[in-house]
Amino acid sequence: MKKNLIIIIGILVIVPRLAAQTDTTKLKEEINRLEMAHAEAIFNGDAAALDSLMDDNVTVNHPTNRIVKEKKELLGLIHHGVIRYTAFKRYPELFLFFKDMVVVMGHEIVVPAKGAPNAGKTLQRRYTDIWMNRDGKWRLTVRHANNVCSNMPEKS
Predict the structure, then answer these.
(1) For 31-47, what is each residue's pLDDT tens digit?
(2) How many CA atoms lie within 13 A of 101 on its CB side?
(3) Position 153 in a domain
(4) Comparing C-alpha atoms, which of 85, 90, 88, 50 is closest to residue 71?
(5) Domain range for 116
């Protein structure tokens, strides 16, 4: 009897944790797919794709040392060539899960195109993206990207 009770309690404790891990795994896959779609849309200058991925009030701490406070302004920077690349690779490293919010941290390697700041230079960046679930749809709501200084010590 005691043995059966211990088994039942064990199942009641373990099964919900396994289900939560499965939900997190699925959500991580979905957010990773959105991260890659966002990177591809930036690289291609695809305003329609960016419009569908970003919240209307997206706020970006941009690597050009300015804060962009809405999607319209960000799409304008893309339209005018301030945000344009000949190469853009994104590498998500860490996903943090909260209620209706996922934080993604990682690094990017980009080469801005002619006419954009730092044109032709290969830039290493650190970034943080915050995705929020708005009305059942995940949207990029906050982004911080900064260029890594070339004189930074390497990781040990």
Answers:
(1) 999 999 999 999 999 99
(2) 8
(3) no
(4) 50
(5) 2-147
Is 156 a member of any domain?
A: no
Query: SS in 3 state form for 71-120?
Result: HHHHHHHHHCCCCCEEEEEEEEEEEEEECCEEEEEEEEEEEECCCCCCCC
Q: How many domains does the chain have?
A: 1
| Tens of pLDDT, residue by residue, the chain (156 residues) | 666 656 666 555 554 554 445 588 999 999 999 999 999 999 999 999 999 999 999 999 988 788 988 888 888 888 887 889 999 999 999 999 999 999 999 999 999 999 888 999 999 999 999 999 998 999 999 999 999 987 656 665
The token duo for 123 is: 């830039």
Report if residue 152 sits inside a domain. no
> For residue 126, what are its two tokens?
């650190």
- pTM greater than 0.70: yes
CATH of the domain at 39: 3.10.450.50
Query: Does residue 62 form part of some domain?
Result: yes
Beta carbons of 89 and 103 less than 8 angstroms apart: no
- Looking up tokens 């591809």, which residue turns up? 40
